[in-house]
Amino acid sequence: MQTTKKASLILDDGTVFVGKSFGYEKPVAGEVVFNTAMTGYPESLTDPSYSGQILVTTYPLIGNYGVPRREKVNGLSRFYESEKIHVEALVVSDYSFEYSHWNADKSLADWLKEEQVVGIYDIDTRELTKRLREHGSMKGKIVIDGGEDIEFVDPNLSNLVAKVSCKEVIRYGNGQKKVVLVDCGVKHNIIRCLLKRDVTVIRVPWDYDFNTLDYDGLFISNGPGDPDMCGITVEHIRQAMSGIKPIFGICMGNQLLSKAGGARTYKLKYGHRSHNQPVRQVGTNRCFITSQNHGFAVDNSTLGADWEPLFINMNDGTNEGIRHKSKPYFSAQFHPEAASGPTDTEFLFDEFVKLL
Q1: DSSP structural state of residue 245
Q2: CATH of the domain at 234
Q3: Of the candidates 132, 156, 180, which is a domain's last residue?
Q4: Is residue 230 among the annotated active site residues?
Q5: Is 217 annotated as a binding residue?
Q6: Annotated binding residue at 295?
Q7: 294 is catalytic
Q8: What pLDDT, on a 0 to 100 scale, did the predictor assign at position 41?
């Protein structure tokens, strides 16, 4: 018999969802968002793009396959997307205290407690998700029964990219071609996908002036929060665009490349966070199933004359990537490295490496 404490998720409109704690017990606040993927909680929890957010999983049963062991290969986590959990808290309907998987090292609850991350279950996540879809992403806080209360927090008012980016230059691989990777909160599988294609990756902090380096191509990573916080990164990208070296951006990278090209971004009502978002390549009937995690989007109507949309979301018509009409610059709002998720679009890494 599990002994659990009562815990409450309180939204900023006053709605309260009462559940039970299965993670670390402390009050926490952030932006409440939902993800509709059926699997992949180890990858989601370690995705830096979730920094500052309370993550709600719409798939009801979570924890049944535990979490994998911590291993590093070539300086990268083997089974995770970063070195630590980035979500503020995890909210689920039914938590499985029993787990079974060939690669499981411990339970999800033990992992959350180790990393001091809050987890609550026995929440009506269907009703919660309906409310978030209706009102949009909301501020929320979780308080433990008998514990202290805290104020609501809007993480998008902070520079979350600066929080999750690396602090120094890191090199990976020993390929002939050199790719500068601007780390806005990069997932490790992006680096794995580049290394698999035999390039040297030079990972630099979000505000590093990479134009002083010798490189063959520029990669701009995913990351959390509002792209408007990354003005210095945009300026560095704009300077790089005075040349003709290939540029590839993913997620936040799509937004920052667009801003460097003169476009504007805006906040989506509740974002795209799932494994099965359909996108169409513009000018073709080619459609792809993609993995996504973002709360902001590019305004297609603000793209300059030299730019055009590359992909469009088939659910709501929003931008899913851009390309320059004459120079080798392109991006994707979705995640072609797709861990965990579909691998339909990993060919975009091949397209980038061919341009180097």
Answers
A1: -
A2: 3.40.50.880
A3: 156
A4: no
A5: no
A6: yes
A7: no
A8: 97
